């Protein structure tokens, strides 16, 4: 554990010393979770958000007696903190972050804070440029099928820190981004999964692909000999760079191109081997279809096998798995156009992750109640992948300002039905219509579930 981490633990536990001053930058799901955990562990917590907080988060903070601010930052107070927990959405080039770094104040991510207090619980952590949400969800489903008491946390599910604070579990399945890994110190997954690495997020990594690659491999840096690192042997970037990192854990690879490693697919069958045990299963029994999902299924099955889950339970789970509702949920394919419901994406980070996973030309349905969104965060992905934007909201001015001249088509709509019909009119066979709004839903819908349900109904009615 690092020196700053030791200081945090020691001060927080000593009643005769002043409590550690812990500042949380960003009052979203992860930030509020970190605040609740910090408060529970005796820290003096202050939450600061440049945008506005959701009512539900304001109430949670108030109920816990945690001070907070929105619409700006009290720099004097922030720069007197002992430690800062930074939202993964805040880049290093942010002026306030530069000032915090210049003062030498330790900056950590929410997953680092949660790790410190997780006790003896096991961690399965999944990262990668594509497929991590599906792989994370599948691993969680396998554990639940096998009656393992686990929590789904991180970028998908609940805040890791909040779960540790309020409902601790013996196993945490954590989806982690490169941004979260950038600010770890001691975070150590028992099982680390790297799905793949593609050239992304370069604006956050000084347009240096190797910086991003190093960030992804940080998932292994604290692992020990008894831990596992599961990776895609067919991913050229992963295999090209893997030997440049000191990895102490047991390495297990999966492949569709070669019959070696811990898992592979041959003649339509998946083989999973860990130790002396092995299992086989036909890919035609997978509920997840497509080549990319065969990789995800191998990764998830391998992770479960290292947990000594019975192969019958792994098979059962792979045959019954469905993606979470409203989170990258396949709705239907109509005349060659795929419709995906990601209504749970209520912030720009979530939309960013959704777009990152798109492998076909995309018509993006975007908009709603803006919470101070910086649409520039999406710019590179939109340029690369989006052929049209359908705005679904009452005030779409910022979206137009951000993407006029970047995307050839930007259209306004005010209902799910209109949005779906409009998106379909611009789609061609082989395209994807992605509802990933990046905004709250309260201008036109009761909540994100209502928005997703109306979207699905409109697709089915086409």
The CATH topology of the largest domain, please? UDP-N-acetylmuramoyl-L-alanine:D-glutamate ligase
CATH class of the largest domain: Alpha Beta
Could you name the CATH homologous superfamily of the largest domain? Mur-like, catalytic domain
Q: Give the end-to-end Cα distance, rounded to a whole number of Å.
A: 56 Å
**Class of secondary structure makeup:** alpha/beta
Quote the average pLDDT: 90
Enzyme class: ligase
Protein name: UDP-N-acetylmuramoylalanine--D-glutamate ligase
Subcellular location: Cytoplasm
Keywords: ATP-binding, Cell cycle, Cell division, Cell shape, Cell wall biogenesis/degradation, Cytoplasm, Ligase, Nucleotide-binding, Peptidoglycan synthesis
Structure, briefly:
The protein has 462 residues and is an alpha/beta fold. It has 18 helices and 20 strands. It has helices at 3-13, 29-40, 55-63, 75-78, 95-102, 110-116, 132-145, 160-166, 178-182, 209-217, 236-241, 291-306, 311-320, 348-356, 379-385, 397-403, 416-426, 448-460; strands spanning 21-25, 44-49, 67-70, 83-86, 107-108, 122-127, 150-154, 171-175, 191-194, 228-232, 250-255, 263-266, 269-274, 277-282, 329-334, 337-341, 362-366, 386-392, 410-413, 432-435.
């Amino acid at each position: 554990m690092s020196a700053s981490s030791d200081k945090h633990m020691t001060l927080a536990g000593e009643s005769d010393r002043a409590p550690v001053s812990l500042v949380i930058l960003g009052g979203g799901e992860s930030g509020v979770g970190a605040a609740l955990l910090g408060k529970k562990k005796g820290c003096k917590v202050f939450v600061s958000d440049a945008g506005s907080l959701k009512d539900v988060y304001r109430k949670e903070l108030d109920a816990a007696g945690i001070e907070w601010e929105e619409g700006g930052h009290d720099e004097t107070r922030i720069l007197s903190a002992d430690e800062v927990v930074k939202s993964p959405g805040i880049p290093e080039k942010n002026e306030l972050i530069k000032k915090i770094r210049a003062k030498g104040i330790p900056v950590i991510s929410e997953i680092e804070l949660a790790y410190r207090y997780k006790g003896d619980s096991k961690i399965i952590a999944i990262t990668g440029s594509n497929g991590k949400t599906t792989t994370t969800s599948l691993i969680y489903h396998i554990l639940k099928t096998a009656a393992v008491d686990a929590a789904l946390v991180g970028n998908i599910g609940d805040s890791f820190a909040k779960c540790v604070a309020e409902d601790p579990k013996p196993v945490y399945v954590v989806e982690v981004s490169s941004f979260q890994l950038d600010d770890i110190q001691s975070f150590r997954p028992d099982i680390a999964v790297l799905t793949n690495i593609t050239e992304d997020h370069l604006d956050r990594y000084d347009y240096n692909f190797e910086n991003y690659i190093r960030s992804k491999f940080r998932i292994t840096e604290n692992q020990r000999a008894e831990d596992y690192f599961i990776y895609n042997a067919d991913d050229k970037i992963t295999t090209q760079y893997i030997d440049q990192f000191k990895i102490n854990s047991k390495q297990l690879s999966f492949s569709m191109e070669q019959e070696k490693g811990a898992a592979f697919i041959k003649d339509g069958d998946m083989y999973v081997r860990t130790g002396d045990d092995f299992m086989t299963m036909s890919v035609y029994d997978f509920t997840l279809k497509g080549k990319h999902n065969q990789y995800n299924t191998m990764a998830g099955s391998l992770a479960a096998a290292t947990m000594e889950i019975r192969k019958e339970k792994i098979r059962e789970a792979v045959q019954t798995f469905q993606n979470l509702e409203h989170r990258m949920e396949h709705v239907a394919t109509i005349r060659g156009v795929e419709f995906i419901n990601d209504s749970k994406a209520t912030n720009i980070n979530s939309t960013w992750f959704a777009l990152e996973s798109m492998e076909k030309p995309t018509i993006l349905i975007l908009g709603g109640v803006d919470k101070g969104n910086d649409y520039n965060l999406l710019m590179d992905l939109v340029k690369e992948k989006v052929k049209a934007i359908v705005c679904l909201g009452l005030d779409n001015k910022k979206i137009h300002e951000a993407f006029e001249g970047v995307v050839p088509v930007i259209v306004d709509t005010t209902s799910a039905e209109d949005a779906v019909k409009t998106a379909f009119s611009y789609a061609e066979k082989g395209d994807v219509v992605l509802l990933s709004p990046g905004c709250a839903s309260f201008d036109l819908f009761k909540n994100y579930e209502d928005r997703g349900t109306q979207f699905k109904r409109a697709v089915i009615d086409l």
